[in-house]
Amino acid sequence: MQAAPHSARSAELPVLRQDIQLHRGLALEGRQNWLVYDPVRHRYFQISHRAFRLLSLWHAGSVAAFRDYASRFLEPAVTTDEVLELVTFILASNLAIDAPGGDARTFAKQEQAGRPSFFWRAIHNYIFFRVPLVRPRKFLVAAMPYVEPLFSRAAAIAIMSIALVGLYFASRQWDQFVATFLDMLSMEGMVAYGLTLAAVKTLHELGHAFTATRYGVRVNTMGVAFIVFMPVLYTDVTDAWRLLRLRQKLAIDAAGIIVELSLAGIALCLWAFLPEGPLRSAAFITATTSLIVGMTINLNPLMRFDGYYLLSDAWKIPNLQPRSNAFARWWLREKLFGLGDLPPERIASRRARGMIIYAIATFIYRQFLFIGIALVVFHMFFKMLGVILFSIEIIWFIVLPILRELKEWWHMRSRILGSRRSRISALVLVCTVALLIVPWKGSVAVQAVAFAEPEFVIFAPMPAQVAKTYIEDGLPVEKGKTLIVLRSPGLEHEMKLAKLNEELTQMRLQRIAGDAVELSELVTLKGELARNKEKLAGLEKEMKRLVVEAPHDGVLRDVDVGLQPGDWIDKVSPLARLVTPGETIARGYIDEDELWRLTIGADASFIPENDLLPSTTGTVVDYAATGSSTIEWPYLASVYGGAIPSDVAPNGTIVPRSGRHLVRVKLHGADVTSALRGTLHIAAKRESIAAAFWRQVLRVLLREAGA
Predict the structure, then answer these.
(1) In a 3-state reduction of DSSP, which class is residue 617?
(2) Where are the domains of the chain?
(3) Which has the closest alpha carbon to 585: 696, 416, 706, 450?
(4) Confidence of residue 563 (pLDDT cuts 50, 70, 90)
(5) Is the pLDDT assigned to residue 265 strictly greater than 70?
(6) Bond preceding residue 231 cis, omega within 30 of 0
(7) How far separated are the first and last CA of the chain, in Å rounded?
(8) At a CB cut-off of 8 Å and minimum separation 6, what does 221 contact?
(9) Between vectors from CA 538 to CA 533 and to CA 540, what angle results, nearest 5°?
(10) What is the pLDDT of residues 325-357, one digit of tens each?
């Protein structure tokens, strides 16, 4: 360790505040620890036994004088760096009355500079802030005699027995239990769950509070904390730091979860035996709320809820998260640069590995969580404010931690550049960056269906009934040959009515005499007769459409083999395809984000799904500049096993969920007798992964800004 400069050795020590207190702390790993308590801020600081001895001997004077004085009482001798490190801790923790001149003042300035600005404090307070509601100490002490029986072994056995009975009978009615849960997913059910959650969480916090009171820990406040404006109840049990028995701390940590699980067990038992009605519904809501919240949120050790404090105390590692993060940063630097630095603290290697794994898991989990919170913030407010708050969330929780670590690397750059492992890491980094920014992606993959052209897909012209069918798979037909004869009773009925109206109008015209009254109706009847003839001609035209004929020579393929006379058919279901041997065209739908990369005449290859069939080369013929509103070929739609995410509209058409553009590729030398599904690989303008990602980000931002 580098020796401290002369100015630091001659600097004066700060004067400790008279109100700070020293308490014996929980022994960790066989070493006695001590606590420094700041009553003004109600905060505890854990220090080593040697630091406690130094604080016990503390007095004003120079660093060098105190070092020599303390060395008379301590072994090994106190060093200047030890004293300066303790000075830094005192000033950073605001435990001094005033910082004197010299280097101590420099330490104070550094500590002041390390404090977040008003801007960042405002952001942090918007992300998380607490509102104390009650000071429950008197109530907890007064109510303790009535609650004490719940801590007995008999109460634990009784509650556990009730819970086991509830679990058994609920498992026997599991289908009904699940069905009841689905029925509760309504607006009324959500309101009931919200009210129940508030009640359950209140009992949860009272569990912490009464357990702490039982062990003599002061509960100063209870209130509500807001995490991005989402309310969460809290109980201040900071004084649990003074407990000298680990079992008691674990009991306080687990009390809330135990209360929730006990409520869940009792509610399950009640649900199993109560008749249908409001009470049974209330028991069901209480059971599911306690189980879901208790197991999925409170037991999660990756967030600062009960699971975190349980893990921290069980491992006997106070401040688990920051200490694990320090170990993870050290581990990362050693893996990347091989600097040979000592770990942040001396602990068993097995425990250090556990802390590193925990820190990595927490980092990954929190990235997803913070992005989710950012999205919630974005949608909670109007667009512009949502974008600002979304950006703040991403910067605060993701970007800044990374930048702080990169800043540390910059300060260590001379050591990093001199390391052999750093050069290996730099090579890996260069390869990774090249993989991201080099436009190596030179093709687009599209699911497509190939068939011979020209072809005619046979549909019914209208919903109708099959009268006769002459279609058969593989049957060659000539142009004009009748393929299917349909009938429409509704259309036939309209024809009869139209003919009857025409005949009646003709009869009235024939009976008109020469008097003036009847002659006045002549013009009207002639107009009515003309309309009847026009309508009849239109109906006859529709009747002719019921006879489906071949539009050109060809071979019938993909015939609906189940089609029989008397069957009713709609106008959107294909009945067969009429194929004329000629060019083979593969048609697919490309995502609109990839459309700009296509060019007419680009090379392509078609790989059939059937592995026994050979692949075929081809050329892009054309592609649609506008998006398709429907998917013409069901083979490609996800609702029929295809790759394009799609839905079936009420009218029976298949609608893509996102913008899709039709692309046609002419296949060379392909012999396709029926529709064949496969994958088109089309040569396209090259694009890097980074460019594709950035384009997607811009697209989303522009879309949301204009929404």
Answers:
(1) strand
(2) 6-115, 122-314, 333-418, 459-557, 573-706
(3) 450
(4) confident
(5) yes
(6) no
(7) 59
(8) 132, 133, 134, 135, 136, 236
(9) 90
(10) 989 999 999 998 888 888 888 788 888 899 999
